[in-house]
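[audit] Reproducing an earlier prediction to check determinism. Same input, same settings, fresh worker. If the tokens differ from the archived copy the diff job will pick it up downstream; this log only records the rerun itself.
[audit] input (354 residues):
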Amino acid sequence: MKITAVIMAGGRGERFWPKSRNATPKQFLSLTKDGETMIQKTVKRLRPIVEAEDIFIVTNAAYTELVLDQLPDIPKENILAEPCARNTAPCIAFAAAVIGRKYEDAIMLVLPSDHLIGYEDIYLNTLKKAIKSAEKGKRLVTIGITPEYPETGYGYINFGEEKGDVYAVERFVEKPDLPTAKEYLASGRYLWNSGMFVWKVSSIMFNLKELMPDIYEGAMRIGQAYGTDSFNEVLVKEFTAFRSESVDFGIMEKANHIYTIPGSFGWDDVGSWLAVERINETDDDKNFIDGDVIAIDSKRTTVCGGKRLIAAVGTRDIIIVDTDDVLLVCSKNNTQDVKKVIAQLKEQGRDELV
């Protein structure tokens, strides 16, 4: 069966402000010293098992030119431009309808555009297992991450009976508090929810029809218009009418035949500036330094420099990010609060900085 990949690349990446902006969100940035952007890495690691012509990028219409620039090997017609943001269920329905129109049925690897993978061979082997499982019946397969510590920032997958290389999913649970996360870790029956899925087009469309019929019907109309002169008109009309809904809530928490495969391949969702020190080498004092920087008696400090010299003296557990028009200085304990700065800028009407 044809293997396709759907890369979801419409997010804003607000927790990586001020590098990540409305015009150039996180997935189009390089956060490692090799210069490759997040979305370039995502596509590159898939190439051993998916042809470039079978990779589809779902993104905001405003980012079409960015995708074309960074991924020149992807056919232009495979860039599926959302006219507005409507969360992951409409995004996936849109892609499934287009792939279904093109191939009738196919395997879909549905993946975020802004994750990093440490061990790509293990990652590809995990995807191959998921593909093999997804070919059976109407299975919906998700890749879970074997937890390494009691993380409170991720949703979890509670799995049950083993079915060959996969496990039946008992339930999906929301982000837990710390005592609950410790219980999940100790039980050995929970995985981090990575947001990576594998299924046939026919399987996800069956479940959309059963559980989200309004989105299914709109997606079918979009798929029928794909490749015709009326496509853009139909897309705008149908997509803007969709309600905003995640595929986890709309499908995965309610459907039957849900399975998971545990993954241990050095996964990082790169969720905030804290990730920079995890995904890059640090010095003996656990500092990550990039740019024209002088660090004196600094420890556990992340500095992402710009055009000017940055001097960090006696800093501890601090993140410093410099751009042409913004300097961010943030305690590592408050990285999630970067979004509050964006909220205040919007309230002040300073949209040029968002």
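[audit] rerun output stored. Observation attached for the diff report: The two ends are 43 Å apart (CA to CA).
[audit] end
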